[in-house]
Write a structure and sequence with these properties.
329 residues; 2 domains; 8-stranded antiparallel beta sheet; globular; Testis-expressed protein 264; Reg_factor_effector_dom_sf; membrane; transmembrane helix; transmembrane
């Protein structure tokens, strides 16, 4: 069959066949990793982790370099779950200025901490962070089948999380990725956000700047409307009533706030007019009292002058009386 085919043509056929096999293998791997799988429904609820002790390393730079630190942590303690915290929005902050934390979970809940593990991590430049338990967070997850599953999950999760947070006007930050071996969990806490920031963020001036475009937008809107950001209690009420926060409820709240502000403004104007009339009356009474005080002051000055004149005309002063008494004694 191949007797009349040149060696060059045969090699070319083999290369094309190899490329086709590799392409089919890659497609099969992507499908197996979850290319066509959907994320779990995004909503607010209790996050998959509670109070956590984390051995972490603070980094500054592109987020795609976090994998190296994950690998270092896995080498030190292969059986531990991994966790990453991402503080800045890559669409708003330069890639060189992005701040994040990558680490290994040493303890969850009431479980004891392995002091030997702590020693191993600290010797390799890791630090220890205690993360709080939060009641509610914006969350979703994706199956962790292969390493490609992580890239697919990130590509799918963050745009949908951003849309959900903006649509429901939530104050949820920073973003946390939690790897338990079966799934990649994405979450953004609705309370105790400050406790997710490591000391290195404060030294880097993190306290003066918003951590993401979501926080910037929310702070601006709340300052304008006079509203408070949604807390964990508000999220709990929403969950009990509807299972998720609705945009309609937020619009109605804004309308009520605007109406209340208008009524309060009319009341304030009316009170201001009454205060002006009261001030005019008070001014007239004060003027009358001032004139009366001046008359009384003039009378007192006159009496004081008469007393002084009497004292100077008298034949005996108090000093003379005292001197006379002393002489007789």
């Amino acid at each position: 069959m191949f007797e009349n085919v040149s060696t060059f043509t045969l090699i070319l056929y083999m290369i094309v066949l190899l490329l086709v096999v590799m392409l089919l293998t890659l497609i099969a791997l992507l499908i197996h990793s979850g290319l066509f799988r959907a994320l779990d429904d995004i909503g607010t609820g209790k996050p998959p982790i509670g109070q956590t002790v984390l051995a972490y390393r603070f980094q500054k730079g592109p987020y795609n370099e976090a994998g190296q630190v994950f690998t270092e942590a896995a080498i030190i303690s292969p059986g531990n779950k991994a966790l990453g915290i991402y503080y800045d929005d890559p669409h708003k902050v330069d890639s060189k200025e992005l701040r994040y934390v990558v680490g290994s979970v040493l303890s969850e809940g009431s479980s004891e901490i392995n002091e030997e593990e702590v020693k191993k991590f600290t010797e390799q430049g890791f630090k220890i962070l205690h993360l709080p338990e939060v009641a509610y967070a914006v969350r979703t997850k994706f199956p962790h089948v292969t390493s490609l599953s992580i890239l697919i999950a990130i590509f799918k999760a963050y745009p949908q999380l951003k849309e959900y947070i903006e649509e429901h006007k939530l104050c949820a930050y920073p973003f946390v990725e939690y790897y338990d071996g079966e799934s990649v969990h994405f979450m953004a806490p609705l309370s105790k956000q400050d406790e997710f920031f490591v000391p290195e963020c404060e030294k880097d001036g993190a306290g003066d700047q918003p951590t993401s475009e979501f926080e910037t937008t929310l702070n601006t809107s709340h300052s304008t409307l006079g509203e408070e950001p949604m807390t964990s209690d508000a999220a709990q009420t929403t969950l009990e009533s509807e299972g998720h926060v609705t945009a309609d409820g937020g619009d109605e709240s804004l309308l009520n706030t605007t109406q209340n502000s208008s009524v309060a403004g009319d009341s304030a104007d009316k009170d201001g007019d009454d205060d002006d009339d009261s001030e005019d009356k008070d001014g007239e009474e004060s003027k009358s009292a001032l004139d009366s005080g001046r008359d009384r002051s003039g009378t007192e000055d006159s009496e004081l002058a008469d007393d002084e004149q009497t004292l100077s005309d008298g034949s005996t002063s108090s000093f003379e009386v005292l001197k006379h008494d002393q002489t007789e004694f």
